[in-house]
């Protein structure tokens, strides 16, 4: 296993930067590499192998070979492996937090540290569920036994994005392994190091081949993995466009899949909620401290017309108080966009918004061209207002800190506008009238709705979207059973 220190920051341990296949760290068959950039200063951190179809084939074969013994292992033993991994991650969580902040640009205090400790919590949660993969007995004549059993699927192909790489990797690895499957995981090429770090911890406890990680480019490595004939399940988090391609590939192979895709989530604020606590909740729902690089970001803010101006004034004051800076600094609230391509994309949306009639810039705008923040992919939290839900900024997922505020007058109108999207991942409702807020929450066409808060996912509660935001759930016992096991019925003749 090759490990090294970051030249940019000696306090960041980059961990391994090779492929993990069958318990071994390898350079990759093709010999090509992918440069990993620090988005805070645009300097190259290191490189990882550009895995190809040959690497994927080796990894899948290793996982298939390991499946037989791993799946037959007592479930409680598999759970103990996960609990040991949880303890190991937690004991080194600060190291992981610094690495994730360094490679993703997510601020260590507001995002990377909670994500690192969250990984340990995910492994611990699923490690404690190992004996919950139960079957059921059914009424039958005295000489017949009818029952069901839960069985693992086989090799799971897991693909994760760059915005919360280690959390999402853990949320796929832990339940898949708990259920008795083996895993081949492909991290995003922009943020592979934290995932490899997690894999290095896992490899200290797991038998060879149970978990394999192949770094590479989506159309090459990811496609080869999804289309591999020995893969028995695909679990993907990423864009809706790529998700549609995975559906087609899964259909061709007749294998199950789960998808957590894009979002354009509504946040609805009633006239009784014009106060600082709700302002903070709205900013949290928008994920401003994650640079809004989140599919759950409440990027469409529907404010009741009675409080529209006063609420935006408070929101402007709050977002302008957020400290933008070095992700590794403790005082930093908001870090950087992940890479140049995404940075330029978000800037184009902002530029178009500033040039569009009837769209008003409330705060923020284009990034600074001078000073320390110009050396990285830093963007200010930006808020626009518009009277319509039909314009581009209110329709398309930007995946950056750009919020569109829209006034509303009556409940029917705001529900119609909130649901007028092909996405359906998340939603947020704020009102002092809890009964009213819950009534609105039940009418939102979204897989996850929060009332009077804008926090992240809770481990143990199923999470996933409707419509083009995905298929399937994660983060819970129910999702583990549904996504990573199959139900077999057995009928036994007990007669002579």
Strand order of the largest sheet: 16-17-18-15-14-20-21
Specify the overall morphology: globular
Mean pLDDT: 96
What is the top-level CATH class of the largest domain? Alpha Beta
CATH superfamily of the largest domain: Aldehyde Dehydrogenase, Chain A, domain 1
Helicity level: 25-40%
Radius of gyration: 23 Å
Strand content: 15-25%
Backbone structural class: alpha/beta
How many β-strand runs?
Answer: 24
Low-confidence stretches: 1-8
Specify the biggest β-sheet: 7 strands, mixed
Number of domains: 2
Say what the CATH topology of the largest domain is.
Answer: Aldehyde Dehydrogenase, Chain A, domain 1
Number of helical segments with 4 or more residues: 14
First-last Cα distance: 59 Å
Explain this structure to me?
With about 500 residues, this protein is of the alpha/beta class. The protein has a seven-stranded mixed beta sheet, sandwiched between helices. A six-stranded mixed beta sheet has the order 11-10-9-12-13-23, with helices on both faces. It has 14 helices and 24 strands. The model is unreliable at about 1-10 (pLDDT under 50). The chain folds into two domains: about 5-260 and about 470-490, 3-Layer(aba) Sandwich (Aldehyde Dehydrogenase, Chain A, domain 1), CATH 3.40.605; about 265-460, 3-Layer(aba) Sandwich (Aldehyde Dehydrogenase, Chain A, domain 2), CATH 3.40.309.10.
What descriptive keywords fit this protein?
496 residues; Aldehyde Dehydrogenase, Chain A, domain 1; 2 domains; six-stranded mixed beta sheet; 14 helices
